[in-house]
Design a protein that fits this description.
five-stranded mixed β-sheet; globular; about 400 residues
């Protein structure tokens, strides 16, 4: 393809081949060290590898253009140590978010920083052929003339779906997608590796990899991460230039990401990794029935939390929608004993304070009734803003290179 020249294509292929445990350990430490870099001795100490093994790994990474020297650092004795850093532009991944009515595509470097973005309308019900062609066209338009190495495309969209095979199931509201091999169709169209996952899983992965900066968003059950970019860059690269991956630091080990937009779903991170379940179907949060005689839902049941939430929002009862969402969140907290609830999606974004307060109030009441000594689980707005799912989709390709995000 025009956007992959020979040199960059080779480095991208080499990076994909580096899927060894030791190389991933070293790459992850280089990634988290940032521009300041890290010495070989520090890499050996923190990975438990021998200095000789670290030297061999970093020599290969330097030969492939993935690592460069970042100067020298004074040592406590002997000569100054050479410091190494990751080269962010040595590889890129595309994140593609297919929502029910729009498509967002981002180009991220190895650190997860967004260097280009497009967003245009999309009709997910237009049929597989039309949607695949539209999505592929947006990817090609974003990459045209960029001259970067592309590791592949991560695709995130509403579930349910089979993450392992990249095959869709009966997407709520669009049953015609059932059984469609989206991964293979897009890979064949674009000629690069493709990974497919649910939008909620992708967003949760992105948050887990980037870290725990959400803890600094404010006290109590409120706080907002803000948006990492413009909400409506329609069909053009992001004019604001490169941006960091949501400004977080440190690992998040146990949380639920609840996404309320055109539908409702959950991404679950347990023990630092995305929990997809035995058949990669975990997180169908929106279709838990909480009112047996409730309104019909697009999934075929009645009284699903998704139907109740969206119906309340449609009639302007945002406070009611937040309380309904809070009931579902409280069920998750009680079932999984997680540390944090993060809220995202365009419907939440339009009423951030109301949803954070409403969900937080339900969790506080549940904690009081249960006599929890340390109070309710905190509720925050998820980082990433309008493109958080797309950034997470890019991490479907990037995270495994650093030993993160793998099942």
């Amino acid at each position: 393809m025009a956007y992959v020249n020979r040199t960059n294509a080779e480095s991208g292929a080499n990076l994909l081949a580096l899927r060894s445990h030791n190389a991933a350990l070293v790459l992850d430490l280089l990634r988290t060290a940032g521009e300041g870099g890290i010495s070989r001795l520090e890499l050996a100490e923190r990975t438990g590898l021998t200095p000789q093994a670290v030297s061999k790994i970093t020599a290969r990474l330097r030969a492939d253009g993935l690592v460069a020297e970042a100067g020298r650092r004074a040592s406590t004795g002997g000569k100054p140590r050479t410091v190494l850093r990751l080269v962010p532009e040595a590889g890129h991944a595309v994140g593609l978010h297919l929502d029910r009515d729009e498509v967002t595509v981002v180009l991220c470097d190895l650190t997860g920083a967004v260097v280009a973005e497009r967003r245009v309308p999309l009709d997910l019900g237009a049929g597989a052929e039309a949607v695949v062609e539209s999505a592929a066209g947006e990817v090609e338009a974003l990459l045209a003339g960029a001259g970067v190495s592309v590791l592949g495309v991560g695709v995130a969209l509403p579930g349910p779906l089979d993450h392992a095979r990249g095959v869709l199931h009966r997407v709520t509201g669009f049953p015609e997608w059932d059984g469609f091999p989206l991964r293979d169709a897009l890979a064949g169209r674009l000629g690069v590796p493709v990974v497919v996952d649910k939008d909620t899983n992708a967003a949760a992965l992105g948050i887990a990899v980037v870290g725990s900066g959400v803890g600094a968003l404010g006290g109590g059950a409120s706080g907002s991460a803000g948006s990492s970019g413009p909400a409506g860059s329609s069909g053009a690269s992001d004019p604001s230039g490169p941006s960091g991956p949501s400004g977080l630091s440190g690992p998040l080990e146990s949380f639920a990401y609840l996404h309320l937009g055109t539908g409702l779903g959950a991404g679950l991170v347990i023990g630092g990794g995305v929990h997809r379940g035995a058949r990669t179907g975990a997180g169908e949060f929106g279709h838990q029935v909480i009112q047996l005689d409730g309104p019909p839902c697009g999934c075929g049941n009645r009284g699903c939390i998704e139907a109740l939430c969206l119906a309340a929002v449609d009639r302007g009862a945002v406070g009611e929608a937040a309380r309904v969402l809070g009931v579902g969140a409280a069920n998750l907290v009680g079932l999984l004993d997680i540390d944090l609830v993060l809220l995202g999606g365009r419907t939440v974004a339009a009423h951030e304070d109301a949803f954070v307060r409403g969900v937080g109030a339900v969790l506080e009441e549940r904690a009081r009734l249960e006599g929890v000594d340390d109070g309710a689980i905190p509720v925050r707005v998820a980082p990433g803003g309008a493109r958080g799912v797309a950034e997470g989709a890019a991490q479907l390709l990037l995270a495994p290179l650093f030993g993160r995000g793998e099942d």
